[in-house]
Amino acid sequence: MDMDRQLSEMIGAIYDCVASEASWPTALSLINRQVNGFLTTIAVFDTRTRSASLAQIACDDPDAIRTLMQHAKDVPFFHLLHRMEIDEPDTLERMFQLYGADGEAVWKNGDLYRNFHTRYGVQNSIDMAILKRPFRVGTINISVRYQPSDPRIFNTVGLLGPHIRRAVTIHDMLEMERAESAILRDVIHALEHAVFIVADDMAILFANEAAEARLREQKVVRAIAGKLSCIHDYAGNALTNAVTLGARDEIRIGAAGIDVPLGSSERPAVAHVLPLKRRNGSGGYESRAAAAIFVAAAGTVIQSAVEAVAALFALTPAERRVVGYVSEGLSRAEIAAAQGVADGTVKSQLGAIYDKTRTVDQRSLQQLVRDLSPPVRRPDER
């Protein structure tokens, strides 16, 4: 099986988890097999209580699963999870560095290392943040019995990050009002969040009651000639791009269509795009259905202007960091120094950013960030 077919199979399995959390072990097993892992976990934590709203494991050794569950809370790096870069996989050595000079010693003296890693011959792990919210963080962890160094492995895991985040985010929206039926259409009917099912040309094929209300309000979305449109052009272009990419090739959609801000505010209504082409047979929708667009209420996500730019234009984590530096007024040379990379690397990153955002230089990119910055309310305004 070629790499694209393997990726397509993994991504399809990840999206199946939107409708059923019980599907995660299947998706994780495919990921595990792809990178020659021993055990793979996905978890979403409340950082205030350390409780998990999602915790799934895939491993062929039931005893290893029991052992991991027994010692999972013994991880000494929990307080560092929010410092992991999203969609950037790395090994345990990163956590050692974040912890400090004695990070490795603390790890090797811990119960998880002694009882799980040593017992089952686990030499390292590939860890990645897939979700970061003010009080929630999601990670995927792949325990391996070798020292990972092949960049292709890290590239594969990183590529899957946005797809996992999309599945987890939309699953969370569905969870509170999930019906017993496994048919996505039945779940969407009962959902209080607005959901639109659209064709690849953005023609609206279905809108639940909450979505119909959004169309009547015309505050963030509207229908023009039967097609879904956004009040803000940036948002409309971002959603159209994500739907088109997902309909053409789920692998390439990447981070496009996740947390897309539908307005300019610190707590905007945001939209998430779920490709449907592979799921038409079981979703209860006609064959033209290209995507489901879920609209979360204002206040669900807190976004800075830089985060809004990243979501609207599907920037990579590295590109998002560069936009942050540009917004602070740093020159190209200063950005290179801040990242510890060559000037040519930053030049290439800026070129990719300009292409995606349709800006031409750092000044116009700064203006774009300002345009997307939340308006500041004066003290005398109510």
Automatic annotation (TrEMBL):
GO biological process assignments: regulation of DNA-templated transcription
Stretch forming the signal peptide: none
Top-rank lineage group of the source organism: Bacteria
Domain HTH luxR-type, chain residue ranges per copy: 312-372
A GO molecular function held by the record: DNA binding
Protein name as catalogued: LuxR family transcriptional regulator
Organism: Neorhizobium alkalisoli
